[in-house]
Design brief:
This protein is α+β, with helices and mostly antiparallel strands. It contains five helices and 15 strands. The mean pLDDT is 95.
Length: 268
């Protein structure tokens, strides 16, 4: 398995793409409110990427995906197709997954939004746990460790919170291509003996369910839902491995203000 090691010039270009992906997630937040359709949210993101950022929305037409971002609501685990008929309501939990291409380099990130600012107690706990699961995975990263240690840490934390980790979908290498090695499992599984090295770039994006881990693929060939119809939540960052940790290239200012992320940003 060939896992690319990115040089300084490549990392600089990836940083630029990652900042733009993060910026889309910040821009769209005020629009995530009751009464708006996920189709309209997609259109706002699309116009912003094309007209303001001069970026290319990577999901659009990727293996036939029909929209510019993925929007997954409540029991949708991932790859939700935005639609004019899907209207958000207060209490919904929503993941928006953005990937942009800038100068042939990819930036990929996602976050959760709570419509109206409040939801059911268990759904709120789920969202909080999904974000912390991501941070735990990020804090595990450093050159020299086995890749599987990331998944082990995420799975242990998630199950301690009373939730489950989705098995079928994982993080991935990324650079001048949307997906490349390595596959980054969010549970303790086979990593083909991969040891992390400086310059590896990949995403960590645990999907965790309020109920059981099993999922089902819908007839559209993209939308993935929890099999038991419980809610699911996910946060995603794109990173580059450093000697002592990792650089989170898709970091948002809100995370810096919260303080938790600073323990992760090493050698930035």
């Amino acid at each position: 398995m060939h896992i690319p090691l990115r040089n300084k010039e490549e990392i600089d270009k990836l940083r630029k793409a990652c900042r733009l992906a993060a910026d889309v997630l910040v821009m769209i937040e005020p629009h995530v409110k009751a009464g708006i359709s996920t189709g309209e949210l997609n259109d706002i993101c699309h116009r912003y990427m094309i007209e303001e950022q001069k970026t290319i929305p990577a999901p659009l037409n990727y293996h036939g995906f029909p929209k510019s971002v993925c929007i997954s609501v409540n029991e949708v685990v991932c790859h939700g197709i935005p639609s004019e008929s899907k209207i958000l309501k207060n209490g919904d939990i929503v993941n928006i997954d953005v990937t942009v291409i800038k100068d042939n380099y990819y930036g990929d990130s996602s976050k959760m939004y709570i419509v109206g600012g409040r939801t059911h107690i268990r759904s709120q706990k789920l969202v909080n746990a999904a974000q912390e699961a991501l941070y735990i995975g990020l804090r595990t990263v450093k050159a020299g460790i086995r890749l599987r240690e990331i998944g082990k840490a995420i799975q242990q934390y998630t199950e301690e919170q009373g939730f489950s980790v989705v098995r079928e979908y994982c993080g991935h290498g990324i650079g001048t291509e949307f997906h490349c090695p390595p596959q980054v499992l969010h549970y303790y599984g086979d990593d083909d003996g991969v040891v992390l090295k400086e310059g590896m770039v990949f995403t960590i994006e645990p999907m965790i369910n309020a109920g059981k881990k099993e999922t089902r693929l819908m007839n559209d060939g993209w939308t993935v839902k929890t099999k038991d119809r419980t809610h699911s939540a996910q946060f995603e960052h794109q990173i580059v491995v450093t000697k002592e940790g990792c650089e989170v290239m898709t970091i948002r200012n809100e995370e810096i203000r919260e303080g938790r992320i600073q323990r992760i940003m090493i050698n930035c």
